[in-house]
Amino acid sequence: MTNHKTRLAAFCSGTGSNFQSLYSAINERGLPAEFALCLSNRSECGAISFAEQHGIPTLHLSEKQYDTYEAFAEAMFKALQKHNIKYILLAGYLRKVPESVINAYACKILNIHPALLPKFGGHGMYGINVHKAVLEAGEKESGATVHYVDAEYDKGPILLQRKVPVEPGDTPESLAARVLKCEHRLYPDALEILLTGNIS
Ligand code: GAR
Fold first, then answer.
1. Domain of residue 66, residue span
2. Mean pLDDT estimate for the chain
3. Mutation pick for ligand 1 pocket among 183, 184, 187 (CB with most ligand atoms within 8 Å)
4. Which of 16, 86, 130, 134 holds its CA 20 to 30 A away from the CA of 183?
């Protein structure tokens, strides 16, 4: 039988809770896609363990393994080709994707960011730093954004964005937890739009 499932790669650096929520949503919503690769710059992390437990091929790929950045970028591109990947979903991947890969996968790479871009994006804005900055700025709301990845950090076109309130007494950790809960719904919704054009 022909396999019509769109082949996805998850790029992760940590827990991979967004990767896990995407994986579950594919099954629960019956989306015509499958994860065919989980790539991480770390040899051990939650995302890699999850992939191993679910029979998804994994790859530890880091700049440190190569003499030149070009060789690293080439290895990444070859791995994507080998696994016949159509879309790349960055899920807590805290490294820049090489420009050659971004160009080869133009409009085919998504990222999730834990704030309302274009605010609180850019260099150094990842994980808990984002939530600290939101609280320090006295914002009344935050949220999550799924956007296409282009050469500029956190600047690509926005596919989907959802707000959450900042509550009195919030700490970076309590805000992070509220935003992460939102992310776990938002990223699957964005994937569904990417694959089918709408949300069920
Ligand atoms: C998520 O909150 C994601 O939005 C953020 O890292 C966390 C990863 O959690 N990404 C960034 O800050 C990217 N700039 P996860 O590994 O549990 O999905």
1. 1-105
2. 96
3. 183
4. 86
